[in-house]
Amino acid sequence: MTYHPKSDFLTALIERGYLADCTDLQALDDRLVSGDPVPAYIGYDATAASLHVGHLLNIMLLRLLQKTGHKPITLMGGGTTKVGDPSFRSDERPLLGPDQIAANIEGMGAVFSRYLDYSDTPSGALMLDNAEWLDGLNYLDFLRDIGRYFSVNRMLSFESVKSRLDREQSLSFLEFNYMILQAYDFLELNRRYGCVLQMGGSDQWGNIVNGIDLTRRVADQQIFGLTTPLLTTSDGRKMGKSAGGATWLNSEMLSPYEFWQFWRNTTDADVGRFLKLYTDLPVEECERLGALGGSEINDAKIVLADEVTALLHGAEAARAAQETAREVFEKGGAGADLPTLALAQDELSEGISVAQLFVRSGLAKSGKDARRLITEGGAKMNDEPLTDPGLMLDAAALADPVKLSAGRKRHALVMVAL
């Protein structure tokens, strides 16, 4: 029998497609309608200087939680990043130093204020760092007080660990401790802030369940876990990946135009689903737009790109990105906001091949990829077809900005730095 929630949060969560699994949906629903705002958290390890589109689903989930009257907690992994989450990885994460972790947290933290209200109100979000309680742990006390609640047999049964061991790939003792530390996070958040819900991607299910079990044993508290689906696009690609790599959320690492263009390039079959997951538009409007056929689906893709870009970068950036796209596609112009590669004069003393420019500008992943793109007729320069990957350009040829195109939708400018 399908469960029909009473709470606004779970109703919207199910309608919009965020739910993969929940430890006790009915008991959580009862807690959500009990009166006071419910604190819930998602953890983010500081492994890069920016979050990427793969994180955006759960950021939107925190936004939905707050919009329905509850209290989101963004937990930065200043402590756990020193260990590294082994979940579904084939090798150990590179260990980062404290300065790099701090810089990454600063870069990641800037994104959340675009989606969440951190004001001092009952539902105001909190941004915390688990280094606050993990850095000062006494190892022997931690082993005695916390470690005794964990069964190694059970930990070995989790899919994230089994998949690594089944492939006979090393799992270090350092990484094995990660799931204990994450479970301890949930216990500390419950003690300090009354947090009763951890959310995350479905690959975090084992870690979430560990935290629930530990908190029940140590603090005799009922808490909950909820996971979102691991998204792939309709053509089977991992959500958030593009030809140029990760689709970053910080504008210093990916321009608002490139971000807008990522969403404009959504495949037809994904438009309605992505509108529900990544925008604030009503469900009925998302479904109407997603059901459009023929050339009208392109209008829905522009709505998707505009809405998602406006949330992250602001409405003005979304308008500028759409205008740049219109210049590029409809008017044949260069588009002032296109990704730009600025070359130093001394790089051009002997000229540079057009194939290298495709690689340097991010339109091709390698020289081989660039040569294939050009020889197969998929590349243009200033809207004219390119056929020779060895074509050399010097400073005179780049006196005016040159527009490179890979296919119909990916473009970049190349110019000489002033």
Main sheet properties: 6 strands, mixed
Secondary structure: number of strands: 15
CATH homologous superfamily of the largest domain? HUPs
* Poorly predicted runs of 5 or more residues: none
The whole-angstrom Rg is: 24 Å
**What is the general shape?**
globular
CATH topology of the largest domain: Rossmann fold
Mean pLDDT: 87
DSSP helix fraction: 40-55%
What fraction of the residues are assigned to beta strands by DSSP?
5-15%
Q: Numbering strands along the chain, what is their spatial order in the largest sheet?
A: 1-6-5-2-3-4
Count up the domains.
3
In whole angstroms, the N-to-C terminal distance is 67 Å
- What is the level 1 CATH name of the largest domain? Alpha Beta
From the helix content, strand content and strand pairing, which structural class follows?
alpha/beta
CATH architecture descriptor text of the largest domain: 3-Layer(aba) Sandwich
> Count of helical segments?
18
Descriptive notes:
The chain has 418 residues and is of the alpha/beta class. The protein has 3 domains: 8-228, Rossmann fold (3-Layer(aba) Sandwich); 255-329, Tyrosyl-Transfer RNA Synthetase, CATH 1.10.240; 340-416, RNA-binding S4 domain (Structural Genomics Hypothetical 15.5 Kd Protein In mrcA-pckA Intergenic Region, Chain A), CATH 3.10.290.10. 43% of the residues lie in helices and 14% in strands. The protein has helices at 8-16, 25-32, 53-67, 98-112, 131-134, 139-145, 152-157, 159-166, 173-176, 178-193, 205-219, 256-264, 271-278, 283-290, 296-313, 315-329, 354-360, 367-375, and strands at 21-22, 39-45, 71-77, 126-129, 197-201, 224-228, 241-242, 245-246, 340-343, 352-353, 379-381, 384-385, 392-393, 402-406, 410-416. α4 (98-112) links the parallel β3 and β4. α10 (178-193) packs across α11 (205-219) and α17 crosses α18 (367-375). The longest helix is centred in the last third of the chain and has 18 residues, at 296-313. The relative contact order is 0.10.
